[in-house]
């Protein structure tokens, strides 16, 4: 299959159902292949990892958005996301990431463990009660969606009564993170972005009046200059504060929800692994890493080069667009033997699904932030 045709298939609803056969057809052309003038697809693990760490590659900035996405400033969803660390390059990305990372203190993270366990237990009890008489229970509706939203909302300090609103808003906004967004999807995303921004503006004002121990308070202090980074003079602008609150909700919600759904399907198809997980909770970290590798909840991300580079024996001129196919890289046979086989006992699994291994670079070219599908 021609690389351009393969990309068109991958962007279609039919191609997204099972992209892995298309990845293998692309892989036959090489780990980095041209799909058009200054446009490249990356399927190799080593090449994807190198590009995502290469300081010469970045995400689309405002000037490029003006060039390729005219009218984007009229979209509340696009405008909000553009001011977050997800869609910025160094030095702004690095500054925002340092401020956000400083708010995730070990004490705050440790305190979330009991919150996560309590919410998970409550949701499972509800599923058991609803399914006791043999009724069908929708795992995603009853667990996969509400758990991540509830945990993120607890972290941000959103009252429990407001959390059902956040589930809808976050679902609406995720359309802006897809490689291609229809006008109808954009309208829905704009509505979600507007409602989220209005809500967070009120929450920020409330935390400014009465600080609490939540992440919103910590980020408000990063904006006002009286938090942990006040000595350095680093701050968040007002737009950055609201944008990063929105991204923390949406990015934390969608990826985890997709991982839970994908993971359940895989484990139902692999009863031995499911039994091992039930018998030994310590088996969970390795199982999750393999689930991320085997069927990633994030299938691609994109980068543009600011200087000539060479990856996979291919010369990439300045201004090249690269679509890094994370799902393909995670199944590169040069990195993982029998990559199509789910094996939670597999040694040394480091998937490029999201997190530090697949992130915008910092000023020094080291990984930072969270990778998402970025048009």
For this entry, give a set of tags.
375 residues, alpha+beta, Cytochrome p450, five-stranded mixed beta sheet, two-stranded antiparallel ribbon, 7 strands
Radius of gyration: 21 Å
Beta-strand content: 5-15%
* Uncertain runs: 227-231, 355-375
Please summarize the sheet with the most strands: 5 strands, mixed
Structural class: alpha+beta
- Tally the helices: what do you get? 17
Distance between the termini: 23 Å
Secondary structure elements and pairings:
Elements: H1 3-10, H2 13-17, H3 20-27, E1 32-36, E2 39-42, H4 45-53, E3 57-58, H5 62-68, H6 76-82, H7 92-103, H8 106-131, H9 139-144, H10 146-156, H11 163-173, H12 183-209, H13 215-224, H14 238-269, H15 271-279, H16 284-294, E4 300-305, E5 309-311, E6 314-316, E7 321-325, H17 326-329
Parallel strand pairs: 2-7
Antiparallel strand pairs: 1-2, 3-4, 4-7, 5-6
How would you explain this protein's 3D organization?
It is built from 17 helices and seven strands. Helix content is about 55%, strand content about 5%. The longest helix is centred in the C-terminal third of the chain and has 32 residues, at about 240-270. The strands form two sheets. It has a five-stranded mixed sheet with strand order 1-2-7-4-3, sandwiched between helices. By secondary structure, the chain is an alpha+beta fold. It has one domain (about 5-330): Cytochrome P450 (Cytochrome p450, Orthogonal Bundle). The model is unreliable at about 225-230 and about 355-375 (pLDDT under 50).
């Amino acid at each position: 299959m021609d690389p351009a045709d393969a990309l068109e298939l991958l962007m279609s609803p039919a191609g997204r159902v099972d992209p892995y056969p298309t990845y293998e057809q692309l892989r036959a052309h090489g780990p980095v292949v041209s799909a058009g003038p200054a446009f490249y697809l990356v399927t190799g693990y080593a090449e994807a990892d190198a590009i995502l760490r290469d300081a010469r590659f970045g995400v689309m900035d405002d000037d490029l958005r003006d060039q390729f996405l005219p009218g984007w400033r009229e979209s509340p969803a696009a405008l909000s996301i553009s001011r977050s660390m997800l869609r910025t390059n160094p030095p702004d990305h690095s500054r925002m990431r340092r401020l956000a990372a400083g708010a995730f203190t070990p004490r705050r993270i440790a305190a979330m463990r009991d919150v996560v366990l309590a919410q998970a237990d409550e949701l499972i009890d509800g599923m058991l009660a609803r399914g006791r008489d043999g009724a069908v229970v929708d795992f995603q509706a009853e667990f996969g969606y509400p758990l991540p939203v509830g945990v993120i909302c607890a972290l941000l300090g959103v009252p429990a009564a407001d959390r059902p609103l956040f589930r809808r808003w976050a679902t609406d906004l995720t359309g802006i993170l897809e490689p291609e967004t229809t006008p109808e999807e954009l309208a829905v995303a704009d509505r979600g972005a507007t409602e989220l921004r209005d809500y967070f503006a009120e929450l920020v004002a409330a935390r400014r009046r009465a600080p609490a121990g939540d992440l919103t308070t910590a980020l408000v202090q990063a904006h006002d200059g009286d938090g942990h980074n006040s000595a350095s003079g680093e701050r968040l602008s007002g737009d950055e504060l609201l944008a990063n609150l929105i991204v923390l909700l949406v990015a934390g919600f969608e990826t985890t929800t997709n991982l839970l759904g994908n993971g359940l399907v895989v484990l139902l198809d692999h009863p031995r692994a499911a039994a091992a997980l039930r018998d030994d909770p310590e088996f969970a970290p390795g199982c999750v890493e393999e689930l991320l590798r085997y069927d990633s909840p994030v299938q691609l991300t994109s980068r543009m080069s600011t200087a000539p580079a060479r990856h996979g024996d291919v010369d990439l001129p300045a201004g090249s667009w690269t679509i890094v196919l994370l799902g393909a890289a995670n199944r590169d046979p040069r990195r993982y033997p029998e990559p199509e086989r789910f094996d939670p006992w597999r040694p040394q699994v480091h998937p490029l699904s999201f997190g530090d291994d697949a992130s915008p670079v910092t000023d020094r070219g080291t990984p930072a932030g969270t990778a998402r599908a970025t048009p």
